[in-house]
Amino acid sequence: MKKDKSSKKKTNTPRPRWRKYLRWGIFGTIVILTLFIAIFTFSVVNNLPPMNDIENPQIDLSTQIYTADGKKLGSIFNKEDREFVPLDKISHWVQDALIATEDVRFYDHSGIDPKTPFTIIKDILVHQRLRGGSSISQQLARNLYNQVGKDNSITRKVKEAIVAVVLESRFTKEEIMQAYLNTTSYYGNSYGIEMGSQTLFNKAALDLELHEAAMMVGLLKGPSYYNPRRNPKRALNRRNTVINQMAKYGKISQEAADSTKKIGIGLRFRAGGNSRKIAPYFRDQVKRDVKDILKKKVGGEYDLFTDGLKVYTTLDSRMQHYAEKAVKEHLTSLQKTFEKTLKGKEPWKKQKRILQNAIKQSDRYRGAKKARLSRKKIDQLFAKKVAMRIWSWENGLQDTVMSPRDSVIHYLKQLQVGFMSMDPHSGEIKAWVGGINHNMFKYDHVKQGKRQVGSTFKPFVYSTAMGSRHTPCDQVLDVPVSIKLPDGKYWTPRNSGGKDDGLITYYEGLARSKNQVTAYLMKEVGPKVVCERVKSMGIHSKLDCVPSLCLGTTDLSVFEMVGAYSTFANDGRHIEPYLIKRIEDKNGQVIYNHVPEISEAMDAQTAFTMIRMLQGVVDHLRGTAHRLRARYKFKNQIGGKTGTTQNNSDGWFMGVTPDLVSGVWVGCDDRRVRFRSTRYGQGANMALPIWAIYMKYVYADGDISLPQTPFTPPEGYQEWICKPKSLNKPPFWDSEGDPDKLPEDPWGE
After folding, report:
1. pLDDT in tens, 338-381
2. Which CATH superfamily is domain 417-741 in?
3. Nearest Cα to 282, choosing from 329, 249, 321, 256?
4. Which helix (H) or strand (E) holds 349?
5. Mean pLDDT across the chain, nearest whole number?
6. Shortest CA distance to 445 belongs to which of 285, 644, 575?
7. CATH fold of 51-260
8. DSSP symbol at 567
9. Where do the structural domains in the chain lie, given as residue ranges?
10. Looking at CB atoms within 10 Å, which of 267, 446, 510, 740 has the fewest?
11. Which residue has the higher pLDDT, 277 or 65?
12. What pLDDT, in 10s, does the model give residues 389-406?
């Protein structure tokens, strides 16, 4: 039988092409998707923080400054003011509110809430804006690392998820919560729960109550949007939402939630900024000194702004408060008197350069020059009235309409101040007032500013002659003295008022601040000896060692003068004034301890003789500081010296007690703006009252317990008593004094 050949032949049916395309399509999609995932993963991983940084996170910590009596004085930072606190120093209400509001499953997940990815996928599919939902660990990743970013994107979500998982594997839940609460922004420059709490409620994070803790946690959603000062209603609603969440998840009862929501916001805002806290000028100097210490004595290992240093200063917050209060009390009154005496006699009307110079120093003028405005345009700018805020003692900051020119005049006639108080035995500075308003006047008149010291220089001259050459009771003719100068001319100073008093003692000569007696001593000992003496007492400024130096023609700082006068109260040993006791790193390790700088300036006998003579300035009925007895009724032993420059530009007072030496300077920034008469422009009227008011407050504070004990003479000291030449009625400023009550013993012993 024959086979059918045709049956053996295969039929070649063509395959559909779509299958081929489908295979290539699937393959291509897989390749593209793989490439996309690879590129995306590479991009994400490549932009992640280094693993070492993730495992060892670092946050910037501001330097904290403390007073000697344990008060927080302020902080030093670049952008973020943050003080790290451990979790056990944070109120449990904060922790409960955080869990209930931000991450209720915090203790159950490993960095990523299992429900979160589904929420993100849903948002992507329906093209919605990505919502939050980040766990506390993810938010911490965002806070710690700039590489994670803060944009609202899937890339950021993936990055923070990866970092969060690493953080969870490296740290405990408590450590993660602690880090989170210490890194988050709460208000302005206040970062971390401690600084946020201090700023908004003026209390430590540990002391936050339920409603306050809810407010703090509520701010995490948007510190600016829920700002309780700008948007109190919005902030209150957000706080109540947090309270509701706490009740929902069993952190508090519903009853507690309802009662807490009835409480107002209750802010006790502690104004930020260096100018609004106590001792702003002191803190500026602390910053300068710490920088210098870190550079020269610690080796530059630490960053002042980010390493969380703790600086312990010598300042006593109570004494600082009294110093600022005394300045305000006296200058509020004195400023009125000053402006009254200036009226119709304004020096800038005759001396055009006074106002011109003041205008050129203003920020407005500098801005105009930078903008390359013509002189005519600048004049028009300063003549046109505009809305502005003006500060004065009487009204504080006040909104007004005024020309910039008039505002310059307003500030030109403000009396400035420099005040410093220190322990003469330890060198510790207890109070420091560098100006009248740090916000308006940044220049410090304690250490930066130097002014002519006038008669406060005279005790330095006397100290070179007492002991080896003279005793305080030696007599000298109060007559003009001529001293030959190198150029062949003669310098012949006269007493204030031009009156000669004939034969008087050196004791009375200093008590009454006789120029001619001081000039006689300068002629006897020579300018070179006087210069050597004052340098040994801590005067570091350059001195012109000429005869007129004896009357205080040189410019010195309050800082130098107080340090020098402390030598008299410290048995002739000069101890350099200082502000910083010690510095610790963020772990409490001491990296700097102050070592006092002590030098022998004079023997103890001479130093104590000068103390007795300075007491004469206060005790003598015609002493320039006798008003401390007559008007202010001080009964304890006090040494002092007033100082007035020749044209009343500067008023000084140096006050010495056994355990506290203080100095005051008062005057205008421009020396040509001044009191026109010595009656008002003398140191006894301008500066002495500030010292008196300050000491009254200090003595009255039982917590400070500053003793009012007498000065203690050195062993073997021979006391002396000089009988006054006459019991003339005191001058006008001592009209309350009673000359019949002059004690036989000037020291009251």
Report:
1. 999 999 899 999 999 999 999 999 989 999 999 999 999 999 99
2. DD-peptidase/beta-lactamase superfamily (3.40.710.10)
3. 321
4. helix 347-350
5. 86
6. 285
7. Penicillin binding protein transpeptidase fold (1.10.3810)
8. H
9. 51-260, 417-741
10. 740
11. 65
12. 999 999 998 999 999 999
The alpha helices in 126-207, defined as continuous H runs, are: 136-144, 154-170, 173-183, 192-201
92-102 helix and 136-144 helix, angle to the nearest 10 degrees: 100
pTM: 0.82
Strand order in the sheet with 190-191: 81-82, 190-191, 185-187
Token pair for residue 98? Answer: 């955080």
- Between CA 393 and CA 414 the distance in angstroms is 9
Continuous H helices in 489-586: 506-511, 515-525, 527-536, 558-569
Q: For residue 82, what are the CA distances in angstroms to 61, 65, 182, 218, 715?
A: 5, 12, 8, 19, 53
Segment 193-216, tens digit of pLDDT: 998 998 899 899 999 999 999 999
Beta-strand runs (E) in 276-408:
310-313, 386-392, 396-402
327 backbone dihedrals φ, ψ, rounded to 5°: -60, -45
Q: With beta carbons less than 8 A apart as the criterion, state whether 317 and 71 touch.
A: yes
CB 412 within 8 A of CB 432: no
pLDDT at residue 42 tops 60:
no
Strands (E), 538-694: 555-556, 573-575, 580-584, 590-593, 598-600, 639-644, 651-657, 660-667
